[in-house]
Amino acid sequence: MNDRQDVNVPMRWVVRALFALLAVYAVMAWFRPMLGAEVQLAANVPGSYVEVLGIGRHSASAIFVHGLGSNAAQNIPLVSRLRQKLFQVSFILPSADPLPLSAFDGAYHSAWFDVADLQPAMDAPLPTREDEEGIKKAVDRIHGLVQKELDKGIEPHRIVLGGFSQGCATALLAAIASKEKLGGVICLSGWLPLSYKIAKVGPRKRHPMQAEHAHNMPVFWGHGAADPTVHYLWAEQSLDLLADMGFRDIEAHTYDDLEKWLERILPPT
């Protein structure tokens, strides 16, 4: 005699089980790191950098520099969005080393150079004293990343620098000082460092680190009017100085326009 009995599972339990599996998958997808766990882990290593390869043939590069107190992971959401259309672009995301910051009484934080004041007055002009040595070291590091891309065979005009806040200041000065004719520079909520050293040379003003050809480089500038840290006044003054330095291809927009600007500067080849 066979004691086994057939068990009829009600359809509603099957449906519930399927919905439960879908829910688990959705939660896992939601919490999965953008661009994968390996990229996320590498982006959190101080003093290193992570490269996010383009989906298509690598024919252009964009180097994005994070802001004060952050690391390369700050730029992952932006890169995750941009690479959906910029198939040919490889994104290089460096992380700063921890530095003793005067603004924090010498405490160590991730930074590209030292800062003395994190909350200047709303009407405060551009700084009149900055960590020149630290700024130049940060610029040299970005130039080293540019050289790595050149060594891969990427043409200089197919390389764009960009950054946010202190990273913007670093990227902007690295672009201005580059001996190569780069494709452009993206400035997000930043300022022009060492502006107090700008002097008139010939028919126009000149930054002491400005390369001879730098004024021909396209500039994208995005800045929030209510930025509480890098005030909008600094953006206005920086843009005025760039114009005085001979820059003509300057686009000052909201962040939503960044994608269109990059598509124009780095079109598919």
TrEMBL record:
Catalysed conversion reaction: S-hexadecanoyl-L-cysteinyl-[protein] + H2O = L-cysteinyl-[protein] + hexadecanoate + H(+)
Keyword set, alphabetical order: Fatty acid metabolism, Hydrolase, Lipid metabolism, Membrane, Serine esterase, Transmembrane, Transmembrane helix
GO biological process, one term: fatty acid metabolic process
Family membership noted in the UniProt record: Belongs to the AB hydrolase superfamily. AB hydrolase 2 family.
Stated name of the protein: Acyl-protein thioesterase 1
UniProt organism field: Rhodotorula graminis (strain WP1)
Stretches that traverse the bilayer: 13-31
Record domain Phospholipase/carboxylesterase/thioesterase: where: 56-258
Function: Hydrolyzes fatty acids from S-acylated cysteine residues in proteins with a strong preference for palmitoylated G-alpha proteins over other acyl substrates. Mediates the deacylation of G-alpha proteins such as GPA1 in vivo, but has weak or no activity toward palmitoylated Ras proteins. Has weak lysophospholipase activity in vitro; however such activity may not exist in vivo.
Keyword ATP-binding: no
